[in-house]
Amino acid sequence: MLENKRIAFIGAGSMAEAMIAGIVQSGKIPANQIIVSNRSNRERLIQLEEAYGINGVTSDELQHCQMDMIILAMKPKDAETALQSIRDFIQPHHIILSVLAGITTSFIENFFPTGQQVIRVMPNTSSMIRESATGISSGKYTLDENMVIAEKLLESIGKVYRIPEDKMDIFTGLAGSGPAYFYYLMEHMEKQAANDGLSEATAREIIAQTILGAAKMIQNTKETPTVLRKKVTSPNGTTAAGLQALHIHGAGTAIEMAISEAAERSHEITTQLVKIRIPTKQNVPLD
After folding, report:
1. The overall pTM is greater than 0.70
2. Which terminus of the chain faces fewer neighbouring Cβ atoms within 10 Å, N or C?
3. CA–CA gap between residue 236 and residue 275 (Å, rounded)
4. Residue 282 lies in a domain
5. How many domains does the chain fold into?
């Protein structure tokens, strides 16, 4: 299903690299069938070529007609310019995947003839080690068979969840931004361990293993976080003391607000882009 597909990433930033790394590791698509492009930073393209065995080209050199899937991976603020630049090269057979936070499938569809297949995707940087939690939403014209192809591709970088597009903002707050929350937590756990005399390197390994173990307990036991928390919390014990400190200092509220604010920012991006003038080409049907 995937072995003959040719994929082009438009944008060569960290998210594109994370996805490329996972896809190449999976072996589902030969590295020489993956193209990555940017406007002019050849040094970055060479870096990705050497790291993953893929092909790097500038935007002007990209042969869109030879591609099967186009993955939009530029910064959201550059979306309008990028879509304008490729609109005359996109063909009906192309499947467009967008990893742009806050940008809807309908916004992208409006840059192309009516009927263009667009899929919205929200992976996270754990794609690099094939452990992403990736959300996927179908555009108005996307055939289910092509949703399946997209899912098979994205399964090479982790687990895939079909999400209604109107829930993609909260998915972004949870999973798209989620790894950063855990890294932030780990930073502070590591800092306190160092304050108490434990080496940073040792503390980092201990913390990572502890988080990994907790995640696997959720996955393997199927019990809720509340049940597992109560099982590990003895009255007047060490865990109870730690949880009490988290409660007093508002840790739970802070986590909830982090997710809410990230989701709200995703929605704000959508609102801002709706104000952009959409080209009239949207009313031309696909052949």
Report:
1. yes
2. C
3. 56
4. no
5. 2
